[in-house]
C-alpha cells in the first residue's frame, strides 16, 4: 500500500510566503535615518499618535474661541526651554544658536518626534526669569563674598562669588553676575547688589561676614557701605606684584630684553627664519617660534621663556653675520635660567590657589614655597633684591587681624598645621594662644578647648596622606564629633578663599561671555546674567596658571646655569624675613585714595580690558 503524501493546498503556500515576507521585513534596514525636514512650528495635532483622535462632542452654552490655535505648553516643554536657555547662555551662545542646522540634526537623531524649542519662545521666557536664591543658612557658618569688576565701555560687569557651608559640611561656591552703569558705579550700589545676591527674596536678616577683592579702593568703599567682620585682598595680587618686581630687576631685565629683541628679529627676517627652520629639522626639535610676551603679564613671560629654553641651542647656533642681533652671553643666559625657575614656582603656587577648594589656610604655605625659591636663586644681587621684596609683602600679609586670621587658618588645616616649613615651634604656640584667646571671648571652656587642641596636635604630628578621595575637607567631616569646637572654627576660617573670582575669564576680551553680551539686546542683559550664572563654576584669579603649568610640566630648563661660587652670607636674611606673625600690631588694608573723590577713584581703579591679554 503506497504511502500517502501530505497534500498542501494553495492557501498553505500563500501563508508560507506571507510568513517568509514578514521575517524579511523584521530585519533592521541598512539605510541611514532620514534627514530632518525643513524646520517649522509643528502643531500638536500633526504628531503621530497611537490612537485616532475622535471629535469632541459639542459643549452646550460655550462659544468657540477663534484665537485658540494650539494647546498650551506642557511642563516638559517649559523645562526643555529652560534647560536650553541655561545651556546656551552659560556657554556664551545666543538664543539663535538653537536654529543651527547641525544642532537641529543632532536633536533630530536624539528624538525625531519632539520639535526643538523656538528662539522666540525662549526670549519671551527669558524676560520672566527671577534672581535665584543661594539657600544659605546662617547657623551652618559664616558667609564670604568675593567680587571683581570688569569695565566694558560705559558698563561695569560685576563677578561675585559666595562661599558657605551646608548642613552636610560641604563648602558651596556659587557664582553670580551683575551689571552696573558706569555713572552709578559707587560703593552703595555695589553693596546693594551684594545684598540682593545674598538674599534675593529679602526674607532673611543676615549679612556678609567676610569680603575679598583685588581692587583695594572698591573694597574700602563697599565695606564702608555695609557691615562686615573682616576684609581681605586677593592673594594673587600679591603674587603678581612680586613676580612683576622680580622681572624688572636689572639682573633679569637686561637678558630678557636681549632675548625679546632676538626673537622679534627672527620673526621679521624671512631668510633667517628659513635657516632657523632647517636647523630645527636637522636637530628634530618640534617647537614653534614663540610670540613675544606681554610685559605686564608674568604668566606670558613664563610661557615665552619655556619656548625659548627649548630653542636655546638653535638660537645660539644662529650667527650674528646673518643680520641678527647679539644673542645671550653666559651671564644673561644664567639670569634667564634663574628667572625661569623662579617664575615656575610662582606659577605652581598660583595654580594651587585658583581651584574651587581654595582657602586662606594656603597663604603661609605658599609664602614659604616662594621663600625657598628665592633662596635657590643663583645670582647674589638678585637674591638680595628679591628678599627685600618678599619681606615687604610678607610684612603686609602677616601683621594685624588679617595675619592672625591666616595663621589660625593654617593651624586648623591638617595639611599645614604645626609644619616646620611655615613656623617654628614657638610661633605655633603663639598661634595656639591667639586661638585660645578668641574662644575665651566666645565664652568657650578653656579646658575643653585645650583638650581638643592637644588631641588635634597628636593627629597631625605625622601629616595625614591625602588624595582625591580623602581630602582635608573629608578629614574634618570624619572628626566633627571628635573635635566639635575646632570643627566650628575650621568652618569659620576655611570659608574664605585665598583668591577672588576671576572676572576676566567671563567678561574680558576673549572671555566666555564677552561676545554674548556684546551682541545681546540690552533689555535682556540682567535676565540673561541670571541664566548664565547657574552653570558656572568658581574660577579663582590666576586660572591661566593651570594651563601654563600643564604646558611647562615636561619642559627641561636648557638655559646654561653658572656655578654659584660666592658665600651664602644672606641665609640669615632669609630666616629673618620669614618669621611668625606679631601679636599686638594692627594692620589696615593700605589705601592711597586720600584727597580724591570716591566715585572718581573707583572708576579709575576698575580692571580695564587690556588689548594684549594673554590666553594660554
UniProtKB/TrEMBL annotation:
Residues 429-459 form a coiled coil. GO terms for biological process: negative regulation of vulval development. Residues 11-28 have a biased composition (Basic and acidic residues). InterPro entries: Lin-15B-like, RNaseH-like_sf. This is HAT C-terminal dimerisation domain-containing protein. Residues 607-616 have a biased composition (Acidic residues). Keywords: Coiled coil. It comes from Caenorhabditis brenneri. SUPFAM superfamilies: Ribonuclease H-like. Residues 1-38, 564-616 are annotated as: Disordered. It comes from the Eukaryota. Residues 1-10 have a biased composition (Polar residues).
Amino acid at each position: 500500500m503506497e504511502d500517502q503524501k501530505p497534500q498542501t493546498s494553495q492557501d498553505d503556500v500563500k501563508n508560507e510566503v506571507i510568513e517568509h515576507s514578514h521575517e524579511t521585513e523584521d530585519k533592521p534596514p541598512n539605510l541611514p535615518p532620514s534627514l530632518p525636514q525643513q524646520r517649522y512650528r509643528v502643531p500638536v495635532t500633526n504628531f503621530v499618535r497611537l490612537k485616532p483622535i475622535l471629535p469632541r462632542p459639542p459643549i452646550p452654552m460655550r462659544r468657540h474661541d477663534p484665537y485658540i490655535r494650539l494647546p498650551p505648553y506642557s511642563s516638559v516643554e517649559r523645562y526643555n526651554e529652560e534647560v536650553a536657555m541655561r545651556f546656551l547662555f552659560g556657554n556664551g551662545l545666543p538664543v539663535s544658536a538653537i536654529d543651527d542646522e547641525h544642532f537641529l540634526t543632532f536633536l533630530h537623531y536624539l528624538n525625531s518626534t519632539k520639535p526643538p524649542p523656538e528662539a522666540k519662545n525662549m526670549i519671551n521666557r527669558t524676560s520672566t526669569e527671577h534672581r535665584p536664591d543661594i539657600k544659605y543658612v546662617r547657623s551652618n557658618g559664616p558667609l564670604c563674598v568675593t567680587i571683581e569688576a570688569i569695565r566694558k565701555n560705559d558698563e561695569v560687569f560685576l563677578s561675585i562669588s559666595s562661599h558657605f557651608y551646608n548642613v552636610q559640611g560641604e563648602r558651596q561656591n556659587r557664582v553670580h553676575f551683575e551689571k552696573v552703569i558706569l555713572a552709578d558705579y559707587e560703593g552703595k550700589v555695589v553693596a546693594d547688589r551684594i545684598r540682593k545676591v545674598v538674599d534675593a527674596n529679602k526674607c532673611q536678616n543676615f549679612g556678609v561676614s567676610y569680603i575679598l577683592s583685588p581692587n583695594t579702593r572698591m573694597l574700602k568703599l563697599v565695606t564702608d557701605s555695609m557691615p562686615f567682620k573682616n576684609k581681605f585682598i586677593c592673594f594673587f595680587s600679591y603674587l603678581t606684584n612680586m613676580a612683576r618686581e622680580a622681572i624688572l630687576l636689572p639682573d633679569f631685565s637686561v637678558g630678557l630684553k636681549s632675548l625679546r629683541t632676538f626673537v622679534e628679529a627672527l620673526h621679521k627676517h624671512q631668510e633667517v627664519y628659513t635657516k632657523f627652520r632647517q636647523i630645527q629639522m636637522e636637530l628634530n626639535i618640534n617647537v614653534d617660534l614663540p610670540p613675544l610676551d606681554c610685559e605686564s603679564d608674568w604668566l606670558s613671560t613664563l610661557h615665552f621663556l619655556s619656548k625659548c629654553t627649548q630653542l636655546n641651542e638653535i638660537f645660539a647656533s644662529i650667527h650674528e653675520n646673518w643680520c641678527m642681533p647679539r644673542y645671550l652671553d653666559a651671564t644673561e643666559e644664567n639670569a634667564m635660567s634663574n628667572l625661569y625657575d623662579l617664575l615656575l614656582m610662582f606659577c605652581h603656587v598660583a595654580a594651587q590657589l585658583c581651584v574651587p577648594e581654595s582657602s586662606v589656610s594656603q597663604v603661609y604655605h605658599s609664602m614659604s614655597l616662594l621663600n625657598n625659591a628665592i633662596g635657590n636663586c643663583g645670582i647674589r644681587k638678585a637674591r638680595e633684591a628679591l628678599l627685600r621684596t618678599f619681606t615687604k609683602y610678607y610684612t603686609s600679609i602677616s601683621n594685624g587681624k588679617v595675619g592672625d586670621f591666616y595663621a589660625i587658618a593654617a593651624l586648623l588645616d591638617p595639611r599645614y598645621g604645626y609644619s616646620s616649613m611655615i613656623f617654628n615651634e614657638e610661633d605655633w604656640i603663639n598661634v595656639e594662644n591667639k586661638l585660645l584667646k578668641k574662644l575665651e571671648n566666645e565664652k568657650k571652656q578653656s579646658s575643653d578647648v585645650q583638650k581638643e587642641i592637644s588631641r588635634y596636635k597628636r593627629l597631625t604630628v605625622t601629616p595625614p596622606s591625602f588624595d582625591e578621595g580623602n581630602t582635608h575637607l573629608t578629614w574634618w567631616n570624619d572628626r566633627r564629633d571628635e573635635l566639635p569646637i575646632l570643627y566650628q572654627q575650621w568652618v569659620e576660617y576655611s570659608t574664605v578663599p585665598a583668591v577672588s573670582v576671576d572676572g576676566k575669564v567671563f567678561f574680558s576680551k576673549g572671555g566666555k561671555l564677552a561676545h554674548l553680551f556684546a551682541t545681546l539686546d540690552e533689555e535682556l542683559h540682567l535676565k540673561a546674567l541670571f541664566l548664565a550664572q547657574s552653570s558656572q563654576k568658581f574660577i579663582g584669579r590666576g586660572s591661566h596658571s593651570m594651563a601654563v603649568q600643564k604646558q611647562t610640566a615636561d619642559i627641561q630648563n636648557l638655559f646654561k646655569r653658572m656655578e654659584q661660587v660666592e658665600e651664602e652670607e644672606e641665609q640669615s636674611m632669609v630666616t629673618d624675613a620669614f618669621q611668625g606673625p606679631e601679636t599686638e600690631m594692627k594692620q589696615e588694608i593700605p589705601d592711597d585714595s586720600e584727597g580724591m573723590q570716591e566715585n572718581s577713584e573707583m572708576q579709575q581703579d576698575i580692571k580695564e580690558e587690556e588689548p594684549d591679554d594673554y590666553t594660554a
